[in-house]
Amino acid sequence: MVSKLVLGYPDLDKKDYDWIQAIRGKYDDRYFKVVKPHFTIVFPVFECETESFCNHIKNTISRTDKINFSLRATTIVKDSFSDYTDVFLVPDKGNSDIIKLHDKLYEGILKKDLRLDIPFIPHIGIAGSLDAEEMKKVSNNLNNQNFEINGEITTLDIVEFKYPKIKTIEKISLV
Known about the structure:
By secondary structure, the chain is α+β, with helices and mostly antiparallel strands. It is built from 4 helices and 9 strands. The protein has helices spanning 14-27, 50-60, 95-105, 132-143; strands at residues 3-8, 11-12, 39-45, 67-78, 85-91, 124-129, 149-153, 155-162, 165-173. A hairpin with a 2-residue loop joins β8 (155-162) and β9 (165-173).
């Protein structure tokens, strides 16, 4: 089944991108080869016509500013759709801007698609496993490194997703 999503692929320094990819290559067997590091802004939507979806996204974000963020910590989260536990890089700076953008996009025609039973945590997913204890160890190890990754979301991609393929329908620049 094909779904539509909105992803924010962050602009990162090469060393930070490579660091994230090294972790994902080791611990993210589900999505490492499917999608680049990203923030999911709108989660899979199945029952909205593509043109309407794209128009809603473009109209809603037409005057949205770029989002600067800093990632300084990870957290573990039980996946809502599987038995996996995931490790997320979560932003300190930029967190509220990403939440506000997410909430704004779920107004109008996407209001019915908002999952109120799942908390929205802005994040870049970097690991996942059926072994929650292993993911806690990965998260603790990363947090002990006192890393800081600064970046910016300058565009949003409207994508179609049918595992394992993601196809960008449209890329929208933020102001």
